[in-house]
Amino acid sequence: MLDSAGVARDVSSIVNDFTPETIGPDLLAKLKAADLAKLPALSASERIGSPISRTGHFICIGLNYADHAAETGAAIPSEPIIFSKAPSALQGPNDDVMLPKGSVKSDWEVELAVVIGKAAEYVSEAEALSHVLGYAICNDMSEREYQIERGGQWIKGKSAPTFGPLGPWLVTPDEVKDVQNLAMELDLNGQPAQRGSTKTMIFGVAHLISYTSRFMRLEPGDVITTGTPPGVGMGRKPPLYLKTGDTMRLSIAGLGEQRQKVVAHHTA
User: Fold this and answer.
1) Does residue 268 sit within a domain?
2) Average pLDDT, stretch 115-120?
3) pLDDT tens by residue, 8-23
4) What pLDDT score was predicted for residue 165?
5) First vs last Cα of the chain: how many Å apart?
6) Which terminus of the chain is less hemmed in, N or C, by CB atoms within 10 Å?
7) How much is the pLDDT for 75?
8) Statement to judge: residues 13 and 123 lie in one domain
């Protein structure tokens, strides 16, 4: 947990880990009441993992930015497009991204992720944001050949190990002034690739939570990653895809920054 000076503090004396079983309003109340100055400070060199240890559902929303739909030549959807990533894709924000074996069309996508803190089933749009534990950056990594050319089901191109970097922080809603007006960036090898804002979402965060809760019960720890602005590799002419040695830097205003290096597939 970050204190007011930006120092990371060890809160393991309050909670052993951030899991679907431990996160929620009660935990937030304990953390807010804690005297952070009395908790151990962490070294700046400490590895940062995902802000949640695991997720039951890793839900994605497709073509949710009008300017991204335009660059891909896709029609504006009349309802949110929902698909999934495998929960095993979840990883830390600065860990290496590993290309799948034989991949030639792996792509990047900076996205705003929502982490659910309270179960949601048939919630209204007016109530939807009360079910949010916090917001984070997600790189919704995508292997476009697997996603588009392998017989359907986008989950095929979204689920490789390391294809879900999340974090560095889980920022509680009280720290986010306007979730529908956050600047978003992704640089590839030090050059601008994606520039956008959550204000160009076709379906806003509250609508996405409400809509998704009609089709499944959202539970604490579930992640909804809400779509990407323009600038993905698939949208370029000609397309540009990731290769071993590439680097990515992602940021969303107020949510921190991710940095990843692309590596060849290897067995962990």
Assistant:
1) no
2) 96
3) 999 999 999 999 999 9
4) 98
5) 29
6) C
7) 84
8) no
How many independent structural domains does the chain possess? 2
Please spell the DSSP secondary structure of the chain, one letter per residue. Answer: -B-TTS-BB--TTT-S---TTT-SHHHHHHHHHS-GGGSPBPPTTSPP--SSS--S-EEEEES-BHHHHHHHTPPPPSS-EEEEE-GGGEE-TTSPEEPPTT-S-EE--EEEEEEE-S-BSS--HHHHGGGEEEEEEEE--EEHHHHHSSSS-THHHH-STT-EEB-S--B-GGG-S-TTS-EEEEEETTEEEEEEEGGGBSS-HHHHHHHHTTTS-B-TT-EEE----S--GGGSSS-----TT-EEEEEETTTEEEEEEEE-----
Note the pLDDT of residue 266.
Answer: 87
33 and 73 belong to one structural domain: no
In a domain, 231, yes or no: yes
Q: Does 60 have pLDDT greater than 70?
A: yes
Q: For residue 108, give its domain range.
A: 49-263
Contacts of residue 210, defined as CB under 8 A and 6 or more positions apart, other chains included, come to 123, 124, 125, 127, 128
Same domain, 22 and 69: no
Residue 109 is part of a domain; what is its CATH number? 3.90.850.10
Model confidence at 133: pLDDT above 90: yes
On whether both 133 and 224 belong to a single domain, the answer is yes
